[in-house]
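To whoever is on call:

I kicked off a structure prediction for a single chain this morning and the downstream step that reads the tokens threw a length-mismatch warning. I double-checked the sequence; it's 800 residues and nothing unusual in it as far as I can see. Pasting both halves so you can look.
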Amino acid sequence: MRQDLKAFLKKLCAGMTAACMMVSIIPGIPVTAEEGDTAMGRYLESDITIPESIYPLDVVRTKEGTLRIVGQDTEEGVTIWDSSDEGATWEKRGALPEEYAETYFLDIALNPEGGGAGITMEEASGEAAEASGEVDEAAEASGEAAEASGEAGEVAEASGEEEASSDESIVSTSIGSYEYSLVCFDTEGNAQRFPFPSELIGYIQFSQSGELLQYSFSGGVHVLDQDTGAIASTITESNVDTMGICGNEALLLTETELQRYDFTTGEPLIRDEALDDALYADGTNYMNVTSLGGPIVMTQDEEGRLYYATQKGIFSHVMEGSVVEQVVDGELSSLGDPSTYFMGFAVLNQSFYVLTVGGTAEAKLLKYEYNADVPSTPGQELTVYSLRENDSIRQAAVLFQKKYPDVYVNYKTGMSGTDGVTASDALRTLNTDILAGNGPDVLILDEMSVETYAKQGLLMDLSSVVAEIQDSEGLLENISEVYRSDELLPAVPSRFGMLMAVGDPELINTIDGFDSLAELAAQGDVMNPYDMFNIGEILYRSCAGSWKNEDNTINQEKLAEFVRGVKYVYDTYQENKSEKAAEEIEMYINGIYSSWDSMEEYGVPGDDLAMGIMDLATGACQVKLGSLNDIIDYSGLVSVNKLNGACHETLLSMQQSNVFRPFGVLGVLNTAKNTETACNFIKYMLSEEGQSQSQGRGFPVNVKAFEAKIYTDQFGEGGGFSVSSSDGGEDYVELSYVWPTKEESDALYEMAKQVNTCADIERVQHDVVMEEIDRCISGEISEDEAVNVILQKINLYLAE
């Protein structure tokens, strides 16, 4: 059973030097080159092949100097593997008893001295749940968890529970219907189980010398007794975001600072200024936001030097020294992938082994080995520009650099979101740079006007690049060829979403314009409240492309039809919405999704259908409009249909039909300094290899990647996940996600082939229209006034 766990590296150093430190001899920090020479030496990344049957959860360097991993085996449960040749081959050392084969481990950690430990969560039996209740009551009354645990043992024994062996207790403190245990095991897998109080649930780590430390979600850092499972000592009762260990030091990362404690005495240590400053540069946050790994992991080498890994790279530090050295640049490795989180870390023979997990939940053991014969920095630089930060582009840049280690991808953005720069400001700066010959090589044209750059002759013809991928792997031509004009192909979308109406088939099939949509809006709870509150935004991409005249100006008649149609639908819904819908809209106004931009900040387009799946399941609405951008969301829709038989999909038809939303629109400037490398980047972005990686929202345009995406069951035999409505009352609904059948995937494929109209994605026009639409539907200005103001603002912008 594959585990989606978080396991930090649990090991770190013995004695540390307190003297100030100059640049030390660390492989990977090249000696300064003579003038005119190229500095040589860099760590290069490679993937370590691990036993195929396991999902790795931690990695350590053992006291014997071998590499050890622990993982969840698909058949045997938790198994332990050693490699004496730096990850080239693996030998199984042990496995936990069969009783743990189906046990869920919240966390698991290896002990460099041998063996390890894990925290388990299991569903309690009826008797155990009752015993747990008595434990909680006793604990509350006496304030002594240990005494409560003892009472639980008596209850369990009295109720006929199976007795544990002399060295193993099956009684565990519980929350609700779950009980928790601390399981300590040796290298061969022999295990002891101890009760584990629910208030201590969190993460565990081992020091390099074998002490077991734990920090809990509810606050507190403790040293645990591995012979009893009890707390041996308390380091602090404070809350921490995460923890590392170095020698006898517990390194506690809080929201604002690094706190150091000697965990053998519990005494706080003085501030390590260099390390503290490096860790918290740029306001870095180390809060664990996923069970699939954390934002940082720490370890030590054979001499006791501290190393830590983040998305910024691998860093080295002697405790209380004056320097923190970057050994591996995250931007030149997979570590810089924004979807990367860290599960474990080991240093062996001056090489680094980092256990990571990415956006697809696939765990990888990466090796960083020093090579003195390669330049310390890549010889070529490729500049990639997008209007706003795009995690999928940054991820692609990281993977491209791994494939082409002599290329450094310099990814730049025009808008940070924090400096007050608007889209029009950023585009003016970009255009000035292009005209001055200082433009980027590759343009990510999302939210820009492809037509404008193409008509000005600024974009390279990508016909031959696209043809190469088309011939070898295949592309969805209705998507990849959408920007072709006069035999030239200036840009190509790398991914896409489909604009749809989903829900009750009898209702969604009636939608063919504003009048029919208003008829549904008049029926109270038929439409999704969020859609109706943001109806201008929801419909914009299925309409805006129809407003353009041949000279790229705005068609006033078409624009007026949109403004009046949006106002009509909005007013109709407001007049007929139910009391419950009014309450939900008030929540949208006052809650986290109070503005459209806040949705984008969470990486989810505001018109993403994912936001309405549970509304369809609970019956809160019968129709949802938006963009289908991911196969998991499609599985949610087919799961709703299996639940209530009333969730179908059809392409949305408004002022335009068969519309898709492009993502990752790729273009190469004719002024690119290295067109060959730029074209290689485009090829990689469109290739099956590049498109099979997690690249944010949207379906792949590559045929092989698209087919693998929609036909490969990602849930497996155990099925998917379940989502429940927050209301635990009579309206409670639990939706179990199931993978689409072949017939359902075939239907999705047909819709993907059918879409052939590219949604207008230009940001400046969008912002102008939405600002005046909001004023119009609020009654601040009339429909005609809104149209006139929009035209004036857009014409002024075009004149500039």
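Update from on-call: the warning came from a stale cache, not from the record. Cleared it. Sanity check on the structure: Residues 333 and 398 are 6 Å apart (CA to CA).
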